[in-house]
Type 4 pilin-like protein (Rippkaea orientalis), 191 residues
Amino acid sequence: MVNQTLLKLALKSRPKDSGFTMMEVLVAILVSFAFLMGTLQAMALNTYFQVKSEREAQAKFWIEEDQALASSIAGTASTTTVSCPDSSDATNGFGQELKEDLGITSGNVQDMGTRTLVNKNYRLVRVTSIASDKPDVLQITYRVGRPYVSSPDTDTDNDRIADNRSGNTSIIAESFIQLMPVDALSCTPDS
């Protein structure tokens, strides 16, 4: 009997066709809006990271292509008689000869060209060095970054890749290899 009375009071206090209150509608809209904004933010971040990842993967593949070319040149034996250079002179060793075979005639930085990687232009450079204690080994650092053109960018390390205004570089991929020409293996330390 008490339950039936409470049920009748509940039904009388709220008519069947009254719907939701304004507060309930506003709360539902706010909850839906918050969920939608979170989902859209996650989708935007996902797209950004996918593009960045694809650009870096293409840059690394570009570096690998050039490394394969340089390794191929280093692995090709000379058709002429090999004269063993003075192993104590870094400017006269096989590393210097390999550097010249790769087309680097002056300086230590070689521009390997530009490519468009996911709608942005990037430059590949080789930065070479020959250690004085290993004159037969050519050390190459590959870098892919935005090409240095002019201000407002700077190029503080002279690698032809733009540094941004805060001093950070625009490099998206970098790799280091050491190459020794196959001709260097035919020389003995005494010769």
